């Protein structure tokens, strides 16, 4: 797995990929912490940096981070996660830019209406920030809820999509 860390409007972004596609998009403020997060998520992966395909994909991720309402088709190589988490991540990819869902709506979409907390946990475990748009999932009262990479980033992403102002 190869990775690169680049600056963006949300701080730092780590983009990691295998030959099959993007495996991780992690957001943060500290490059070392992002690399540590990647190593913890994929402890068996041999990590390297760079590569022309990765650079092109990271350019696309930066464009999406700057304009989250854009939809780009990029190959994903989703690794890890439980079967339920992977179902949630797939459901999140179906939320169009400019729209949100509640955790409960996602649970009902998966025909597991009692699984609201499990949906929230799956959102928190999402390894693909913005590409799997967990920032578009809100509490049932319209509040932000949580966000693995910080509520300020979630709010900013939603504001960039014209969705949320607090």
From TrEMBL:
Record's catalysed reaction(s): a 4-O-methyl-thymidine in DNA + L-cysteinyl-[protein] = a thymidine in DNA + S-methyl-L-cysteinyl-[protein]; a 6-O-methyl-2'-deoxyguanosine in DNA + L-cysteinyl-[protein] = S-methyl-L-cysteinyl-[protein] + a 2'-deoxyguanosine in DNA
Keywords: DNA damage, DNA repair, Methyltransferase, Transferase
Molecular functions (GO terms): methylated-DNA-[protein]-cysteine S-methyltransferase activity
GO biological process: DNA repair; methylation
EC assignment: 2.1.1.63
Methylated-DNA-[protein]-cysteine S-methyltransferase DNA binding domain: residues covered: 83-162
Family: Belongs to the MGMT family.
Name of protein: methylated-DNA--[protein]-cysteine S-methyltransferase
């Amino acid at each position: 797995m190869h990775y690169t860390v680049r600056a963006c409007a949300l701080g730092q972004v780590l983009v990691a990929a295998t030959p099959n596609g993007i495996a991780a998009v992690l957001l943060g403020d500290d490059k070392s912490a992002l690399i540590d997060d990647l190593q913890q998520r994929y402890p068996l992966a041999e990590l390297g940096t760079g590569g022309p395909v990765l650079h092109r994909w990271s350019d696309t991720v930066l464009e999406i981070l700057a304009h989250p309402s854009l939809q780009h088709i990029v190959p994903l190589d989703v690794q890890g996660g439980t079967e339920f988490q992977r179902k949630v991540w797939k459901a999140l990819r179906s939320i169009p830019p400019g729209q949100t869902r509640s955790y409960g709506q996602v649970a009902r979409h998966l025909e597991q209406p009692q699984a609201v907390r499990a949906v929230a946990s799956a959102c928190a475990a999402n390894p693909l920030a913005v590409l799997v748009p967990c920032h578009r999932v809100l509490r049932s009262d319209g509040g932000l809820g949580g966000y693995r990479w910080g509520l300020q980033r979630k709010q900013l992403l939603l504001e960039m999509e014209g969705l949320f102002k607090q």
